[in-house]
Amino acid sequence: MLVNSVLLPQPSIFLPVSSSRSRSVPRTLVMVKASSEPSDSASVSTKSTSDVVVFTAPPGFKPPEPKRFAVKEGKLLDVLGAAIGVLIRFGTGVFVSGYSASFVSKDAIPADQYALRIGGITVKETSKLGPRPEKPIEIYEFEGCPFCRKVREMVTVLDLDILYFPCPRGSPNFRPMVNQMGGKQQFPYMVDPNTGVSMYESDGIIKYLSEKYGDGTVPLSLSLGPLTAIIAGLATIGRLGKGNLYTPAKLPPKPLVFWAYEGSPFCKLVREVLVELELPHILRSCARGSPKRQELLLKAGHFQVPYLEDPNTGVNMFESAEIIEYLKQTYAA
To answer: Which InterPro entries match (predicted)?
Structure first.
């Protein structure tokens, strides 16, 4: 769980926000601040010449019903392209550390408890987690960066919840912050408010996270030095150019909450858009073996990812293709 409030690292930056689909005035200055509860997602400090911007869902919007293993018409090639990276990375980012699975009888696990159920087969999944950070770790990165992918895979292995600040090329808000905080625009950049540690370099971040929030073990697929970066780069081949460049957007006052994991192609398609629109989001990582799968089941009445919670509009929804449409309609400038 995420506990304690976390303020953006110094220096604080107030960012301009405007919205055509909002009750607003021409200009409002907003500082994003994560809160202790992902469902509430954030508190906001504002300085404005009048009212605070209030985002609303697109007219007539209705969250879709979740459809297990369904691919929207016309989106199959996108899903296959996103899945190529998982194969190239040998499944890294699919399982939590210490993952194990065992077949059990269908009555062994109650209906309100998460289990992998396919037909008449029931599989119980478990994992072994290290210490949990009290405050969400903050990472500045972008989807198309192979070094960033390495860190995201380690986040999945450790089942960490992360406050991501997307930094696509050409973005006006969080890229400059990295330069101010660390002295250069290099990604990924991590800030851990639990320890005061901030650092560049993907291998160093991976080692740090493993030692602090795991058992100190780094998976072989993330321990091959330059070869890891090369393979991670090849993993982007199916989605070349996606998640790299900024699309003009309206910055929300609260970070979105995104239930997902690195190894899911459906989640990756949504992440690309979150990054391109430079939308801050709290990732609630829930790969195979994650206890947060049970949390989402209780929260939404169904487990399926990606799942988006938007505290700015009150929208909660499944289905990757519809989430992408919603994000573009709500936040694209």
So the answer is: GLR_AS (IPR011767), Glutathione_S-Trfase (IPR040079), Glutathione_S-Trfase_N (IPR004045), Thioredoxin-like_sf (IPR036249)
